[in-house]
Amino acid sequence: MRPPKVYSIDEHLLPPGKIDPKVYYIIEKLRINGFLSFLVGGSVRDLLLKQRPKDFDIATSAKPEEIKRIFKKSCILIGKRFRLAHIRFGRTVIEVSTFRAGDIKKEEIIIQDNIYGTPEKDVLRRDFTINGLFYDPEVQTVIDYVGGFIDIEKKILRTIGIAKLRFIQDPVRMIRLLKFKARFDFEIEKETLQALEECKDQIIKSSPARILEELLRMLESTRSKKFFELLDFYNFLQYLMPNLHNFLETNKDQIFSLLEKQDQELLKNPLSRSVLISSLIYPYLDYLLKKDFINKGIFIHLGIVNQIAKEAINTIFSPFFQFPKKLKVEIISILTNQYRFTPLNDKKIKILKIPRDPYFLYSLHFFKLRCLIDTNLSDIYHRWLNAYESKKTFKKQKKITQNEL
Ligand code: ATP
Ligand code: MG
Questions:
Q1: Ligand nearest to the CA of 123
Q2: What angle do CA 152, 118, 207 make, to 5 degrees?
Q3: Which of 52, 131, 145 has most ligand 1 atoms within 8 Å of its beta carbon, as the pocket-test mutant?
Q4: pLDDT per position as a tens digit, 111-167
Q5: Which residues line ligand 1 (CB under 6 A)?
Q6: Considering only CA atoms, which of 322, 320, 314 is closest in space to residue 284?
Q7: What's the rounded Cα separation, in Å, for the pair 267 and 234?
Q8: What pLDDT digit, counting tens, does each position of 320-359 carry?
């Protein structure tokens, strides 16, 4: 086994003040109890890139039961296949996992992934070199077994181990590769790129739930346009979302413009997942409504729009049969309300009636994205927004008066 390359603070310049104090607390406590422990993975990568990590993961030599014994009630053990510890501090949760080992040379999909290992083995089973770094907060060093430090400096995405094997073992890694490319705009190293091309059809072997989660997380990332462009460019959509793939062949602009606007909006305001997903469906729904009804001179009411919206979601997200029901209900409402704002028959509405709909505000959020593309809609948007605000104020005042009586 080769010793790792160790980088001191003068070399890595990782800002220790940007690490959550709870991380120091957990690592110190594990060490006092005689265990090894480091910060690992995405948070070390993000700190080296001067970005704020979404979460902090800790890897340790302590077994799950030992972690539980140390942190008692603030620790819950989760996961069946591989047990992880979640340490809670109020609302914050820090994930602590025991060093794992895996047979990284096997040419088959990984099912078993629950053997404990050493720090080195633990990083060797991770996906990309940039995600395989440890940080030791006590002496402020970055510990590198996989060449990830230099790859971050050179902006290179490279699998740990033989790329083709690593993608066959877990095809979701290919989607993660494109996610990191969209996020950091790094170059994909030659062998990794070649393996991506050779293994893309394997993607259908991976769990739809995991893929859906990566897709939804990317919609929230502020880099969704780039990510979907990459999925399209590298021909993954034909496997992941074949109906979206077919639609994009002739209708790229509308969807990518919506994604672009939502990426920009997310830098200023949060948007719910249902609003973000609507960007992938609305242009298709609009196309269906025009093709099947409007162009044929058939008038339809919102009840039918609602029905077709449901079908449009099922069509676009067809491979993901476990698409959450609540999310679907929200999206249907968002999409249907778009035709309340801009009716299909171009009728001018004089009195704006705000429906009893818990997702009406989300519908307005989506309408705002449409306005950012088509500024002609801005007037109508503001009229609906004002009507909504007035109704809210009126309801509040009515409640106060009722309470006073
Ligand atoms: P993000 O910032 O999106 O959370 P991340 O790299 O932290 O990115 P996570 O899903 O939080 O991604 O995973 C944490 C770490 O676990 C990764 O940095 C990587 O080391 C490892 N990992 C995640 N998914 C895989 C995978 N499919 N195969 C191997 N290692 C993985
Ligand atoms: Mg993470």
A1: 1
A2: 70
A3: 131
A4: 656 688 999 999 999 999 999 999 999 999 999 999 999 999 999 999 999 999 999
A5: 41-42, 54, 57, 126-127, 131, 170, 172-173
A6: 314
A7: 27
A8: 878 899 999 999 999 999 999 999 887 777 788 999 999 9
Both tokens assigned to 36: 């090894």
Catalytic annotation on 10? Answer: no
**Angle, to 10 degrees, between the axis of helix 360-373 and the axis of helix 273-292?**
70
- Looking at residue 402, what is its pLDDT? 66
The answer to whether residue 170 is catalytic is no
DSSP state of 374: -
| Rounded CA separation 353/339 (Å) | 13
CA–chain centroid gap for 368, Å, is: 22
Give start and end residues of each alpha helix (H) in 79-170. Answer: 119-124, 148-154, 163-169
Amino acid identity at 403: N
Please, are residues 79 and 186 in contact by the beta-carbon 8 Å criterion?
A: no
Token output for 159: 């699998």
Q: Whose CA is nearest to atom 2 of ligand 1?
A: 42
Burial of 190 (0-12, 13-18, 19+ CB in 10 A): exposed
**C-alpha radius of gyration, the chain, whole number:** 25
Examine the residue annotation and report whether 55 is marked as an active-site residue of this protein. yes
Ligand 1, atom 24: closest residue by C-alpha: 127
DSSP-derived secondary structure letter, 200 = G
How big is the CA angle at 76 (ends 72 and 78), to the nearest 5 degrees?
Answer: 150
Measured in Å, residue 71 CA sits from the centre of ligand 1 at 24
**Residue ranges of the chain with per-residue pLDDT less than 50:** none
pTM: 0.92
Q: How many residues does the chain have?
A: 405
Q: Angle of helix 172-184 relative to helix 224-233, nearest 10 degrees? A: 130
Joined tokens for residue 323: 């698409």
Atom of ligand 1 nearest to the CA of 179: 3
What is the Cα–Cα distance from 303 to 285, expressed in whole angstroms? 14
Chain center to CA of 261: 17
Catalytic residue, chosen from 57, 151, 170, 263, is 57
Tokens 């249902």, residue?
A: 274
Is 152 within 8 Å of 48 (Cβ atoms)?
A: yes
Which ligand places an atom closest to the C-alpha of 176? Answer: 1
